[in-house]
From TrEMBL:
<feature type="domain" description="Adenosine deaminase">
    <location>
        <begin position="8"/>
        <end position="329"/>
    </location>
</feature>
<dbReference type="GO" id="GO:0006154">
    <property type="term" value="P:adenosine catabolic process"/>
</dbReference>
<dbReference type="InterPro" id="IPR032466">
    <property type="entry name" value="Metal_Hydrolase"/>
</dbReference>
<dbReference type="GO" id="GO:0004000">
    <property type="term" value="F:adenosine deaminase activity"/>
</dbReference>
<keyword id="KW-0479">Metal-binding</keyword>
<dbReference type="GO" id="GO:0009117">
    <property type="term" value="P:nucleotide metabolic process"/>
</dbReference>
<keyword id="KW-0862">Zinc</keyword>
<keyword id="KW-0546">Nucleotide metabolism</keyword>
<keyword id="KW-0378">Hydrolase</keyword>
<dbReference type="Pfam" id="PF00962">
    <property type="entry name" value="A_deaminase"/>
</dbReference>
<dbReference type="GO" id="GO:0046872">
    <property type="term" value="F:metal ion binding"/>
</dbReference>
<dbReference type="InterPro" id="IPR001365">
    <property type="entry name" value="A_deaminase_dom"/>
</dbReference>
<dbReference type="InterPro" id="IPR006330">
    <property type="entry name" value="Ado/ade_deaminase"/>
</dbReference>
<protein>
    <recommendedName>
        <fullName>Adenosine deaminase domain-containing protein</fullName>
    </recommendedName>
</protein>
<dbReference type="GO" id="GO:0046103">
    <property type="term" value="P:inosine biosynthetic process"/>
</dbReference>
<comment type="similarity">
    <text>Belongs to the metallo-dependent hydrolases superfamily. Adenosine and AMP deaminases family.</text>
</comment>
Amino acid sequence: DVFYRELPKVELHAHLNGSVSSQTIEKLIVRKPHLNIEHSMTAIGKGQRRTLDECFQVFKVIHQLVDTEEDILMVATDVIKEFAADGVKYLELRSTPREEKNTGLSKKGYVETIIKAIQQCKNEGEDIDVRFLVAIDRRNGTEVAMETVKLAEEFMLSSGGLVVGLDLSGDPTVGHGKDLLPALQRAKNCGLKLSLHLSELEESDLLLNLPPDRIGHGTFLHPEVGGSQSLVDKVVKNNIPLELCLTSNVKGQTVPSYSKHHFEYWYQLGHPSVICTDDKGVFCTDLSKEYQLAASTFGLSREAVWKLSQQAIDCIFAPDTVKQQLRQKWVDLQPQQQ
Ligand code: 5GP
């Protein structure tokens, strides 16, 4: 539907290597035929479901395909251009810096290459403001988490505002939030914004006390699904926006169906809820489709959808001047009769 494509949108929850389109995967497969990787191993198609654990296996396959600076540059520029073509005006991309001994890729080089891709797209005149969140993969433990925070701090100061924050993601069944608190607290103290995957499965409320600046998924926060009113109260009191990814949660089987997605709970509360893709490549979706799905599943009018995309501006990590620019853009693009 052209309305959803033309709707100006803000994307706040997109993992770089989960966002790689099938066209880009094709180019990577051609570069690395010896890996014997097929498309079916890198995406979860329509009607297919996997456990969250199986989804993490898919990322491993993609990581094999993306292991040089050259790959990262291509993947990042392709992903940015695809979001721009889908009507995304502001994008916060997140990715876990990886070191690859075989190709000489360093974590620093990893982040530098993504920043280069962002700058290249800007120079080419793409109509999209892109920022970067450095991701901590919780599987890698506390020491790596602290190193990652230091790397993010360095880039926050040197990237001219492109690195705005930190993401905590990775397999939620591995490790304890508590062990990551020192690293996350340090990040917060030095001015990095925090977007944490929280209550994707069950999770203590320790990390909520930081508090984070945004929450990824938050699937099991509310009492109907085994969370609690006190968790909800904390989220509401601190006004912590949620990043909600419908297709990802249904395909990853953390929610049973679209109509049972917790978007409805939070939307009805009037709590800031931002529709996001999570991994548009792996889950075969894009942000227009996600807005359309939310609208058709929960009966949102076009006016309500417009408002939803507009309110996402309040939740971005870039400074107020950027919010003002985006708000003006939404005014300029608003259809006359609504
Ligand atoms: P990358 O950080 O390599 O650019 O993107 C892939 C990584 O993002 C995965 O290895 C995983 O750490 C993280 N990720 C992607 N989707 C999800 C998700 O739905 N839940 C969690 N917890 N992590 C995810």
